[in-house]
C-alpha cells in the first residue's frame, strides 16, 4: 500500500515546475521576452502598442521575481538559478536582492527593531501624487544600501555569489544589445526594464500606506478583483501573504477568505486597484488621513495559529530550502 501511494504521489507531481500553477508565471515571462525580442529584431514592432505591452509585462516579470524568491518556480535548483538570471534581465536589477530586502526586511516591517527600507513613511509630500511618483527614488537607494550592509555580514558568500551572477548576466546581455543597436536597446529594452522595476517598488506604498503595520492583520491593503489577481498571480492578497508567507501564491485567495476577511477593516479590501489609485492619488491633492483600521481586529475572535514570529521563521526556512 505504501508503495502504491508513493507511485500515485509521483504520478501527480507536475513535470519540471514545482507546482502546476507555475506555468502561468512561465507564460508571463515568455510573453515579455517575446515582446522585447519583437521590438528589437522587427522594426515594424517598434511602436507605442508593443512598448506599452512590454512595460506591463515588465511589471508582471517583477511580480514573478517576488513569487520566485519566496518559492522556486522549478523543481531543479539549477533551473531556479538560471530562471533568476532571466528574471533579473527583465527588470534590470538582481533578483537576489529580494531575499534580504523583501523576504527578511519588508516582511518584518519594523517590529524587529530594524527599519523597513521601503516603508511608505519614507516620502511625505503634501501633494499625494508626488509621494507615489517619487517613492522609487527613495526606496530604491535605501534598498540597495541596505543590501550592501546586509551582505557585508559574514557568512553571506552564497548570496554574494548569486548577486554577482545576476548582475553579470543582466548587465552583460543589456550591454551586448546596446553595442549591437544602442538606440533600439535604450528605447525598447531599457525603458520597459526600468518601468517594471520602479512600479514594483511603488506597490509597497500602495499596499501599506495608511495601514497599521503594528497589527497582526491590518497592516496591508488588498486588491481582491478576480481578473486582476489572475494576471497578478494573486499578489493582490497581500495581508495573507505577509501572515502566511509559506503558502503558495495560487492558494492565497482561499486563505484570504478564511483568515483575513473576518479580521480586517473592510476598507482594506479594495475591489479595484485602478479606482483606488484614482481616488487616492489623482483626485485629491492631500494624503488621506490614517484611520483606525485595527478596530476590526480588536472586535474579531482570536485565531488559534502560531505567532507571527514562528510563521516568519517557517516561511524563511521554506524559502531557504527553495
In short:
Helices cover 63% and strands 1% of the residues. It has 322 residues and is mainly α.
Summarize this structure as a short list of keywords or feature phrases.
single chain; 322 residues; mainly alpha; two-stranded parallel ribbon; 14 helices; 2 strands; 63% helix; 1% strand
Textual characterization of the structure:
- The protein has 322 residues and is mainly alpha-helical.
- It folds into two domains: 17-209, no CATH class; 215-298, no CATH class.
- It has 14 helices and two strands.
- The chain has a two-stranded parallel sheet.
Helix content percent band: 55-70%
Task: Describe the strand arrangement of the main beta sheet, using strand numbers.
Answer: 1-2
In one word, what is the shape? Answer: globular
Helix tally equals 14
Strand content: under 5%
N- to C-terminal distance: 30 Å
Q: How would you state the average pLDDT, rounded?
A: 89
Low-confidence stretches: 1-11
Helix and strand sequence: HHHHHHHHEHHHEHHH
Structural class: mainly alpha
Radius of gyration: 20 Å
Strand segment tally: 2
The biggest beta sheet reads: 2 strands, parallel
- Structurally, how many domains make up the residues? 2
Amino acid at each position: 500500500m505504501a508503495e502504491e501511494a508513493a507511485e500515485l504521489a509521483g504520478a501527480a507531481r507536475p513535470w519540471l515546475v514545482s507546482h502546476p500553477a507555475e506555468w502561468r508565471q512561465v507564460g508571463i515571462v515568455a510573453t515579455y521576452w517575446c515582446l522585447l525580442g519583437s521590438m528589437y529584431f522587427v522594426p515594424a514592432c517598434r511602436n507605442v502598442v508593443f512598448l506599452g505591452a512590454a512595460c506591463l509585462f515588465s511589471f508582471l516579470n517583477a511580480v514573478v521575481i517576488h513569487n520566485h524568491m519566496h518559492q522556486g518556480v522549478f523543481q531543479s535548483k539549477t533551473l531556479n538559478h538560471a530562471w533568476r538570471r532571466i528574471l533579473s534581465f527583465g527588470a534590470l536589477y538582481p533578483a537576489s536582492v529580494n531575499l534580504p530586502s523583501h523576504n527578511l526586511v519588508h516582511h518584518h516591517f519594523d517590529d524587529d527593531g530594524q527599519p523597513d527600507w521601503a516603508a511608505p513613511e519614507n516620502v511625505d509630500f503634501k501633494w499625494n501624487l508626488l509621494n507615489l511618483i517619487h517613492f522609487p527614488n527613495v526606496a530604491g537607494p535605501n534598498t540597495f544600501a541596505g543590501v550592501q550592509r546586509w551582505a557585508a555580514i559574514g557568512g553571506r558568500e552564497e548570496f554574494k555569489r548569486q548577486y554577482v551572477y545576476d548582475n553579470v548576466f543582466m548587465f552583460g546581455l543589456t550591454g551586448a544589445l546596446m553595442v549591437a543597436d544602442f538606440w533600439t536597446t535604450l528605447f525598447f529594452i531599457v525603458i520597459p526594464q526600468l518601468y517594471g522595476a520602479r512600479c514594483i517598488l511603488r506597490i509597497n506604498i500602495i499596499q501599506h500606506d495608511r495601514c497599521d503595520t503594528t497589527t497582526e492583520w491590518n497592516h496591508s491593503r488588498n486588491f481582491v478583483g478576480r481578473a486582476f489577481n489572475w494576471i497578478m498571480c494573486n499578489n493582490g492578497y497581500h495581508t495573507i501573504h505577509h501572515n502566511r508567507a509559506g503558502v503558495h501564491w495560487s492558494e492565497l485567495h482561499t486563505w484570504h477568505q478564511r483568515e483575513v476577511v473576518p479580521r480586517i477593516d473592510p476598507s482594506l479590501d479594495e475591489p479595484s486597484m485602478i479606482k483606488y489609485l484614482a481616488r487616492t492619488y489623482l483626485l485629491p491633492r492631500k494624503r488621506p488621513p490614517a484611520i483606525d483600521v485595527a478596530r476590526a481586529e480588536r472586535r474579531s475572535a482570536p485565531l488559534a495559529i502560531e505567532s507571527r514570529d514562528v510563521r516568519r521563521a517557517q516561511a524563511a526556512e521554506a524559502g531557504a530550502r527553495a
